[in-house]
Amino acid sequence: TPGTVFTVFFSVMSGAFSVGNALPYMNAVTTAMGVARNLYGVIDRVPEIDASSKSGKKPKDITGKIEVKNVEFSYPSRPTIKVLNGLNLTIEPGQTVALVGSSGAGKSTIIGLLLRFYDPEAGQIYLDSNKLSDLNVHWLRDQIGLVSQEPILFGVSISDNIRYGREDVTDEELVEAASQAMAHDFIKELPNGYNTFVGDRGCQLSGGQKQRIAIARALVRNPKILLLDEATSALDSQSEGIVQKALDRVMKGRTTIIVAHRLSTIKNADVIHAMKVFS
């Protein structure tokens, strides 16, 4: 019928007009599809060290003894530059060991290897005679508390930031961790106490306050091993003194590795290892 012909005609015209309008954007669509393919390839990739894996040993109890035997390592982005070459190191349970040396000597690299962000190219690292590579990654990281130079706080409350260290922590355990980190006194003086919003990256708090919250977050899991990677280097002298006092308290009874440059940070270490850039 004429009505049907009319309808078909305008449908075809409308479709052609739409296709014509879309043609200038086809290059952008093709580019976007390629980018999306690469993006989802990264998202779906299973890492060699999979923290979500259920495999690996989970010892019931550990003392915290660490042994590094003939370890060699180069970063994947710089495979020709040897950061560690035949490193041997033994840390007894409860011992505090300081690693000192120039930048690039591999001090923070040891921290990354202990947390299994990477695996050594050669040699082995042991925790209580267990190869780190044989242990469940998530379990291993639960045994370790890390306090780094720049504490990462999220834009939530102080309480929630501490709970990120262990989600099932009770209120009593949370306050105990904050007290050990010498954070409880300043927190309770805030108008909203532990419910105080810290702002983006903790912008509402001072450097010393942020660091003490980071220490509390590391302590809520009651770790056997404590890693302090330049934990006070970004603080002024007054804040450093407060934070260092808190660290001295929490290091007792824990195997502790300190990466630092300042003498005040390492003066109480049981052993000091000097490292140099491998050439």
Automatic annotation (TrEMBL):
One Pfam match, given by its short name, reads ABC_tran
User: Mind telling me which GO cellular component terms the entry cites?
Assistant: plasma membrane
Q: Does the keyword Transport apply?
A: yes
Keywords assigned by UniProt? ATP-binding, Membrane, Nucleotide-binding, Signal, Transmembrane, Transmembrane helix, Transport
Main localization is membrane
Q: Where in the cell is it found?
A: Membrane
Q: Which residues form the signal peptide?
A: 1-22
How this chain sits in the membrane, per its record, is: Multi-pass membrane protein
CDD domains of this UniProt entry?
ABC_MTABC3_MDL1_MDL2
Tell me the ranges covered by the ABC transporter domain, including all copies.
66-279
The protein's name: Multidrug resistance protein 1
Organism encoding this protein:
Sipha flava
Q: Which gene encodes it?
A: ABCB1
